[in-house]
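[job 0412] stage=fold_complex status=start
inputs:
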Amino acid sequence: MKRLALVALAAIVIGILASVWRSEPEPTVPAIELNRTAEGSFTEPLGKSPLFVLVIGSDVREGNPRAGRADSLHVVAIDPESGKGTIVGIPRDSYVPIPGRGSNKINASLFFGGPELVVQTVSQFTGINFHYWALVEFSRFRDLVDRLGGIEVNIPYPMSDSASGAHFGQGPRKLTGAEALAFSRARKTVPGGDFGRSENQGRLLLAALNKFRKDASSPVALAKYLTTFGALVEANVPTSDLIRLAQLGRRLDPGNIRNMVIPAGTGSAGGASIVTVGQPARDVFDRIKDDAIL
Amino acid sequence: MAATVVVTLGIAVVPLVLVARPTDKEEATKVRGIRVTTQELATVPDLPKSRRDQLAKDLEIFLDLAYTQAFVPAAATATPSPSTGVARISHLLTSASRKSLNKDPDVFDLGPNLTVSSGQLTYRGIVTTHKNNPVEAILEIELDARATLTDEDREVAGVKQTGTLVLKMAGDGWRLRAFDLELDTKALPSPSPRAAR
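[job 0412] stage=fold_complex status=done
writing structure:
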């Protein structure tokens, strides 16, 4: 009897212990992942809408670029999200209304009121609000290219232009500052005359973008670009936008940016030859206004 | 018989002691936390070296704070700290980058129970300035660190983070404005008695 009681007691104790053990929650062991890779990227956009920059080349040989005419005018339109865009050249003789100055050749707007009036004039004519403008004259353009080590350009056709000094065979070629200036100025022997010249200037802008992407991959190389640009190019880019613009530039593929010149005719006004711009040109700007893409 | 037992125990225990306990010298030279070093810093426009050095020092302090708080949670505060690296450094982010990191927090998180014990963060970068004052900075960083299990000394993983940080100067200091980062954690091989020696 005594033995039976002991066995029963043992069974009860074992049963209690078993039930306690079973009701105890499973200990939680947080998962430890020793081998893993994580990636994350975020760039605060410059805005959701396309970015518009007016690039102005003054005909001043050396000195204050505002003291001359805007002989080179390009609307650079970029969609920051897709990286696509369009460069549209505006011939210097385009005859348009200049705010407060009546109608005149568009290049005169620089002399009348500096880059600010050029921006107003082009904005009025195109319907585009520009975020930034950049202005450079001959000698600073030359220095810019030289200080950055030259620029590789695909020369579209053989050039032999005594007036500008552009003598190049067709094909890719690394240009010095003086050669790049000659390439951008050649007009008389270039197919399309002033239109062809404007297209070549667009080619230079794309070549510059390509060079920037290749060269400015490290922060220190980028610093060289930003410092050189700041020293030689007059622009209204605030310091707070410099790095975001540079980051955008590094992401852009020149192959996704179309280069063109506005469709326009020729005529004369007051005895001077002019470029007549009408609805076809306005249509181009209407089309790039929303997404920068033509 | 007794001598045999003592010798056997001795042979068994000595290697265990060698594996488990670093020497006094190792203990003394071990660096805890993350050390930040400036490799190269340029300014736009170019500023005198003394000013660049000052800016580099400020950036080192910011990076030290951010990375220690993100990856060394015990060092964050005396009060209970948030559980994720991103939450612990959220006060050092701009609101836009905070939103983005909250969606994709892994680049600043080692996961549960892992803590960086020691590491080296090096960076090269640019600071844009206006009237001598910093405006933004773009930094290429490389973190090379070791991680332990929380509350343990044994280093179990190597941690590497590489990529770009963009910082913005706010009224009271730098804030992380944008990033492009990759974080790799790899298990370290378990030390063998021979390796420990």
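[job 0412] summary: Residues 49-71 of chain B form the longest helix (23 residues).
[job 0412] exit 0
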